[in-house]
């Protein structure tokens, strides 16, 4: 038997038959008998060869099953060994956690929401791999949606390095003072659309700051401070100095303007009248400049005031006594006056509505 392992077969007689072990094991049992006649083998050696042969067959059958699975993790199975119903890892982690703490009715509702979330996160992952979503809008939407689900079902927080959990995304301006004003604006109750409009204005001011710093740097490169700011400064240098001062004063105005704009947008940012609120949302998505947007918001406030006034007058007229008499005479002056005010304000409202619609249309076509 020892010689078999070494590549040769020892027979009961003095004759030695050279046999390759791999050849023996890889052959069928009938071929094995042909290579080594039974008459030359003892029953014990024959039994050993049978065991080797069937062991090899078992290895072939089972080996193909485990060779790949032993090195690759099945994506359809979670870390705990359960079947993974979703594509994204953290959604499956969240689902397993929910199964431990939620009742069946809530699990059913959660499964539907997670199915949608899973598709959204998968789509985001593909976008990110393609270098898209540079402004982070898709990321913020996906993370906000997941945060809402976590809060709704009391599931805490699930971390995943694939998607940042910073909502809203962190925006950093190079200018420290500008960034400080921006952080203050972010802490206000501004809506996403309003914050986006405000961010664009901050970017414009940052561009102006960059231009100012570039101009200042170019002047400093012409010589030392005594040459630039001294009494012997040339006319050209004086013009540059005036330009710097002008830019500096303009930047100070821009800082104040951004602070006022932030406060203006944050105060009374939500209109109560549905019609006015829809007009404001449309304006935020149109091509308004920051100055036009602030002015337009004031117009909407006046428009809303008129709408409320007419509604109050109509309510007053509705409850006005039809046959109220004073000294036996029917009192009609007050009622007529109310109706006149309703008519006058209604005409004003129609005019304002037309002007606002025209202004929105013109900015949407830009």
UniProtKB/TrEMBL annotation:
Domain Alpha-2-macroglobulin RAP C-terminal per the UniProt entry, residue ranges: 172-366
Keyword flag Membrane: no
Annotated coiled-coil segments of the chain: 188-215
Gene Ontology terms: cellular component: endoplasmic reticulum
InterPro entries: A2-macroglobuin_RAP, Alpha_2_MRAP_C, MG_RAP_rcpt_1, RAP_sf
GO molecular function: heparin binding; low-density lipoprotein particle receptor binding; receptor antagonist activity
Keyword field: Coiled coil
GO biological process, one term: regulation of receptor-mediated endocytosis
Record domain Alpha-2-macroglobulin receptor-associated protein: where: 63-160
Keyword Coiled coil assigned: yes
One Pfam entry name: Alpha-2-MRAP_C
Protein name according to UniProt: Alpha-2-macroglobulin receptor-associated protein
Lineage: Eukaryota, Metazoa, Ecdysozoa, Arthropoda, Crustacea
């Amino acid at each position: 038997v020892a010689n078999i392992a070494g590549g040769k077969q020892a027979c009961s007689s003095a004759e030695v038959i050279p046999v390759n072990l791999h050849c023996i094991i890889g052959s069928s049992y009938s071929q094995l008998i042909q290579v080594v006649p039974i008459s030359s083998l003892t029953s014990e050696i024959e039994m050993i060869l049978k065991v080797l042969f069937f062991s090899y067959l078992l290895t072939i059958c089972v080996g193909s099953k485990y060779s790949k699975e032993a090195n690759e993790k099945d994506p359809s199975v979670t870390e705990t060994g359960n079947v993974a119903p979703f594509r994204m890892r953290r959604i499956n982690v969240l689902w397993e956690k929910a199964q431990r703490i939620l009742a069946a009715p809530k699990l059913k509702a959660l499964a539907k929401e997670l199915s949608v979330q899973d598709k959204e996160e998968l789509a985001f992952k593909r976008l990110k791999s393609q270098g898209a979503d540079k402004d982070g809008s898709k990321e913020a939407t996906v993370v906000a949606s997941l945060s809402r689900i976590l809060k709704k079902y009391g599931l805490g927080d699930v971390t995943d390095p694939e998607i940042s959990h910073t909502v809203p995304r962190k925006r950093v301006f190079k200018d420290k003072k500008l960034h400080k004003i921006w952080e203050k604006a972010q802490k206000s109750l501004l809506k996403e659309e309003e914050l986006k409009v405000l961010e664009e204005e901050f970017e414009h001011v940052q561009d102006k700051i960059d231009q100012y710093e570039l101009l200042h740097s170019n002047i400093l490169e012409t010589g030392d401070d005594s040459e630039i700011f001294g009494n012997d400064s040339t006319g050209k240098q004086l013009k540059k100095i005036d330009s710097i001062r002008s830019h500096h004063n303009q930047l100070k105005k821009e800082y104040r303007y951004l602070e006022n704009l932030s406060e203006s947008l944050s105060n009374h940012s939500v209109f109560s009248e549905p019609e006015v609120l829809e007009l404001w949302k449309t304006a935020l998505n149109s091509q308004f400049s920051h100055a036009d947007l602030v002015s337009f918001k004031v117009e909407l406030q006046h428009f809303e005031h008129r709408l409320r006034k007419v509604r109050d007058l109509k309510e007053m007229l509705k409850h006005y006594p039809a046959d109220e008499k004073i000294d036996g005479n029917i009192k009609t002056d007050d009622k007529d006056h109310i109706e006149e005010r309703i008519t006058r304000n209604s005409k004003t409202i129609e005019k304002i509505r037309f002007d606002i619609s025209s202004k929105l249309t013109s900015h949407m076509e830009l």
